[in-house]
Amino acid sequence: MFLRFNGQRVREIFTFPAVLLFLMIFVGKVSGAPASGGRQDTLKLDLKKAEKMFVDSNLLLLAAKYNIDAQKALILQSRLYPNPNLSYSRGPIIPLHDAQSQYPYSDFGTNAESAATLSQLVLLAGKRNKQIKIAEANSTLAEYEFFDLLRTLKYTLRSDFYNIYYLQQSAHVYDSEIKALQQIADAYDTEKGKYISEKEVVRIKAQLYAFQSEYNELNNQISDVEGELKLLIKVKAKYYLVPEVDTAALHKWNPDRFAITTLLDSAYKNRTDLLIAKENTEINKLTYRYQKALAVPDLTLFLSYDHQGSYAKDFNAAGVSIDLPFINRNQGNIRMAKIMIDNTLALQQNAEATVEENVTRALQKAYTKNTLNEKINAQFTADFERLAKEVVDSYQKRSISILDFLDFYDSYKQNIIQVNAIRYGRIQAFEDINFYTATNFFN
Fold it and tell me: How far is CA 361 from CA 263, 364, 407, 429, 433, in A?
C-alpha cells in the first residue's frame, strides 16, 4: 500500500488494529461525538434561560437599579424646605462683680442674661422648584443608563452565547482528529525501524502537534468567552457551559423581513444612548437656570428675644437679612453651565448622526453575511458527509492511502471551521441590528 504526504508517495505498512481503531474514531467524529471529554458539572442552557439568569442575577444590573433608587431618593430630598434655625445663649459663664451695674453680682444662675433667635431661610427665584426638576431629570437619566447597560450587556451575552456554540462545534472536529492522530502516532511508534522510516513518524507527529497547538488556542478562546458569559449570568467557574441552539430557527432569519425605515424609526425611538444624550442636554439646561437663580440671594426671616441685655427688659424683635450681590453674582458657575449646554448639544448631535450610519451598516452586513451563508448552506454539509463516507469506503478497500485520508481529514477540519465562522458571523450581523435599533427584531 502507498501513502501520499506533501505530494510524495511513500511505501508504508500499517497494522490492521490501528486502522480499525482509526476508522472507528473517524466515523465517531462524523456522527458528532462530543468534545467535552467527560468534563464534570456541564451546564446546558438555551438563550432564553441564559437571558433570564442574566436579568435575575447580574451584579452590574443590580448596581444600576440601586443607582435609580438613589436618584429617586434625591427627588424626595429636593422637595424638602430648609429647616428653621433656633439659637439660644445664656450668661455670663464667668461670674461678674460690678458695683456700678444694675446687678452688682451676676453669674450663670443668678441675674443671668438670656437671648434667643428663631430664623427661617426663604429660597427665592424658584430655587426649590429648579432643584426638584434637576433631581427628576437625574432620576430619568439613571433609568436610561440602566436600560442602556441592559442593552449592551444583553448584546454581549447573546454574542458570547452564539460564539461559544460555534467555537465548540469547531472544537469537536479538533478533538476527534487529535484522538485519531494520536492513535496513528502510537501505532507508528510500535512499527518504527521495522517497516517504516523514522521520518514518517516525525511527519505524522508534527501534524499531531500542530493540531494540538491549534486545539489548545481554540480552547483558550472558548474559555475566555465562556468566562465572560459566566460572569454575566453569575455561574460558578466550575461549570462547563454548553449552549443549546435551534439552528433551524436561526436559518429562517432574513434581513428582508424589516424595511430600513422601520429599523431607523425604532433606533431613533428606543436607542438609550441617544436618550441619554438628550437627557444630559436637558439637565444642563436646567442646571443653567438653577445657576442663574443662585445669583439671586436668599432671604432670612427671624424673631429674636433678649431678656435683659437691651435698653429694655425682655426685648423682642422681628427682622430680615439678605446678602448683597455686589461682588459674587455666581458669574463663573453661570458661564460654565452655559458652556456645558453647548457641550452636550454637540454630543447629542453626534449621537443622532451615528444612528443612521450604525443601522445602515449593520443591515448591509447582514445582507452580505446572509448571502454568503446561503451559498454554502444548501449543499456544503451534505457534500462533505457524503465524501466522508466515500473516503471511509475507499480506505477500507485500500484504494487510497492513509495520508490521502489525512489530507481529507485536514480539509474537513478547515472547512468546518470556516463554515462555523460564517454562520456565527451571520448571527452576529443580526445581533448588531438588534443592538443598534435597541429592539429584538431577530430573536
Answer: 12, 5, 39, 10, 9
Coil, strand or helix at 337: helix
Residue 27 falls in which region: left (phi positive, over 0), alpha (psi -120 to 50) or beta: alpha
Beta-carbon contacts of residue 36 (< 8 Å; ≥ 6 apart) = 42, 240, 242
346 CB neighbour count, 10 Å cutoff: 12
Integer Cα distance of 158 and 427 in angstroms: 10
Q: How far apart are CA 298 and CA 304, in angstroms?
A: 19
pLDDT in tens, 337-372: 999 999 999 999 999 999 999 999 999 999 999 999
Q: Which helix (H) or strand (E) holds 248?
A: helix 247-251
Q: Residue 274 is placed in which grid cell?
A: 441617544
Q: DSSP 3-state assignment of 254?
A: coil
Backbone angles phi, psi at 122, to 5 degrees: -115, 115
Cell of 218: 481554540
pLDDT tens for 59-87 read: 999 999 999 999 999 999 999 999 999 99
Helix 260-270 to helix 331-377 angle (10° resolution) is 150
Topology of 14-82+123-295+330-437 in CATH?
Outer membrane efflux proteins (OEP) (1.20.1600)
